[in-house]
Amino acid sequence: MKLFITCPKGLELLLEQELADLGAQEIRQKVAGVSCEGELELAYRICLWSRLANRVLLPLLEAEVETADQLYAMVSEVDWLEHLRPSGTLTVDFNGQSKAINNTHFGALKVKDAIVDQVRNATGQRPSVDRAAPDLRINVYLHRGQASLALDLSGESLHRRGYRLKAGAAPMKENLAAAVLMRAGWPDSERFPCLVDPMCGSGTLLVEAALMATDSAPGLMRQRFGFSRWLKHEQALWNQLVDEARQRRADGLERAELQLFGYDADADVLRRAGENARRAGVERFIQLKQQPLDELTLEASVSAGLLVTNPPYGERLGETSQLMHLYRTLGARLKAEFGGWQAAVFTANPDLCKVMKLRAEKQYRMFNGALDSKLLLFTVHARSAEELAEAEAASQGALSEQGQMFANRLKKNLKQLSRWVRKESISCYRAYDADMPEFAVAVDIYPGHAVVQEYAPPAKVDPVKAFQRLQEVLQATAQVLELPQEHVILKQRKRQQGQQQYERRDETGNFFEVEEQGVQLRVNLHDYLDTGLFLDHRPARRMVQKLATGKDMLNLFCYTASATAHAGVGGARSTLSVDMSATYLDWARQNLELNGLSRQQHQLVQADCMKWLAEHADRQFDLIFMDPPTFSNSKRMQDVMDVQRDHVWLIRQAMKRLRPGGVLLFSNNYRRFKLDQEQLADFVVRDITASTLDPDFKRNSKIHCCFEVRHPI
């Protein structure tokens, strides 16, 4: 029999070696697969034992195909009653296209029709389609006018062993995990008496390592294969191979002396890892522990082994700076605790590994689905005296020359702002805002804390250098402000889409209260990109507080209603605050309660502000504060809002609700915003931006714009 065995790209050489070990002949590598020859027993062995394959295909026919009729004719040449019962079930996997066949669903339909028509004409019965568990799975590949028709003897992809029902957020497929372990040299009990995965997720690497070390066939856990109801299936031969595999597994489990350790900061995925290990029958070899990476230490019972891991490497699981911090921590823990060990790190972003400060001895290119990835292999050497001295200096907080430059500028800014801060009794303010091009960050001061916001660097900037500078910023900020490192919070600012600015980023729930102009406000420095208090709007809030005395005030796009709290403390007769977010309205409610403002007098409404403006023409106000986002496409909105496009409509609708003699304060933070003076000529509009910038934001005068809009007298 000629067979074609598919696998993920990059695993072809490993698969060739595996097939040779299983007894295959005439082995040839292809792209994402290997062809070989052997008896039916070989096909069964591959299905049962291959740790790398996806599918085992038995080619039936190849022919030139361009049109649907040619495809139909080709499929009709096979005697399908040799493979399928007249009343059986089938499904077709069709890949590729031609000029006449440019839709895979159409191609699969033509193949199915040819098979069904032949069987019905010969027997009067027609097979049916069953995509979930067919008796026969047919595979067709069409490329450059050449079609290949094959039976899929594996059925469901062989990477699905049967032990993993749920995975983590970015799971690694089982056959890719096995390939990573093979490339790292596992199993080798003399070199690697122990294996550690410090970010184990749902435990795929650990379970695959245990199956390999115990000589457990990965196919033993599967309930069904593509050949199970194939008419040429030889059940006796299959039973013999399964019995042999069961005996080998029993022997392997009995003699195995394995120490496998898995750690993760997420208790939920660790629970899944334990469940997966139990289903695979290897739970007694795997010790799982909830532990963050920065606490990774070598277990007392082991002295050498293999550390293998698949850390996060994309925006799916974190921002670049946070990921680099994670990789740097991994490198630091390896050097501190795992001298003499081998380490294998699989990533789709090898640049992240540069911050580990370890030199890869070998690199292997592999594909994780469509992601071009690399496996990097390291030998972790015991640290030299120079490295120990460097680490000691870092732990003592010694700044680099560049770090000291940043520290000096931050000190200078703090000194310049100190008199103003004391005079105005300000506790939250901006101390640095990209003053030096090489340090593109903003530093905001809060009582006992600092928030460092990194502006996303341009693509041309080396991400490793950008990361190293960011670490210097964090270290210098903590030293200058005399704060514990954990009280310096890092965030990354980049171009936001839709409601990303307001999405939850963490679940700490760490709120605390700050005071501004006699107003108490709650802030959260961890869980969202913004803290609940826009510092640059401080003068606008003061203005609202002074103007609100005895007035009815409307706050549109109110966020956490800090401006409303100022209005209430300033003596507003009533306030109405509108926002779409239930989360922020609850935050707003707490801000109002902090200041003793009653719900009856100060109302909160959850609504799309544009829709609310269109539907509530009856309400009139003396003071309106409106600070819309630059852009919003929230699911709760009926349409997309663009502040540049929609500001005329927003202002006109708001002015319909403004009483004579009242004032609308219209603000936004779109840096290229241009007010359409012509379409708003029937109002008195004054640009008051300069007066809404306190000294801490004078260096960044484009952070927002603000206009005062009144009815003509």
From TrEMBL:
GO molecular function terms listed in the Swiss-Prot or TrEMBL record: 23S rRNA (guanine(2445)-N(2))-methyltransferase activity; RNA binding; rRNA (guanine-N7-)-methyltransferase activity
Q: Any idea of its EC number?
A: 2.1.1.173, 2.1.1.264
SMART domains recorded: THUMP
Where is the protein situated, by its record's location annotation? Cytoplasm
Q: Which parts of the sequence belong to the THUMP domain?
A: 42-153
Q: Which SUPFAM superfamilies match?
A: S-adenosyl-L-methionine-dependent methyltransferases
UniProt key word Chaperone:
no
Spell out the InterPro entries in the cross-references: 23SrRNA_methyltr_KL, DNA_methylase_N6_adenine_CS, RlmKL-like_Mtase, RlmL_1st, SAM-dep_methyl-trfase, SAM-dependent_MTases_sf, THUMP_dom
Q: Which reaction does it catalyse?
A: guanosine(2445) in 23S rRNA + S-adenosyl-L-methionine = N(2)-methylguanosine(2445) in 23S rRNA + S-adenosyl-L-homocysteine + H(+); guanosine(2069) in 23S rRNA + S-adenosyl-L-methionine = N(2)-methylguanosine(2069) in 23S rRNA + S-adenosyl-L-homocysteine + H(+)
Q: Which UniProt keywords apply?
A: Cytoplasm, Methyltransferase, RNA-binding, rRNA processing, S-adenosyl-L-methionine, Transferase
Annotated Gene Ontology cellular components are: cytoplasm
* Family membership noted in the UniProt record: Belongs to the methyltransferase superfamily. RlmKL family.
Q: What does the protein in this record do?
A: Specifically methylates the guanine in position 2445 (m2G2445) and the guanine in position 2069 (m7G2069) of 23S rRNA.
NCBIfam families xrefs: PRK11783.1 (NF008748)
Put simply, this protein is called: Ribosomal RNA large subunit methyltransferase K/L
The record lists the organism as Marinobacterium stanieri
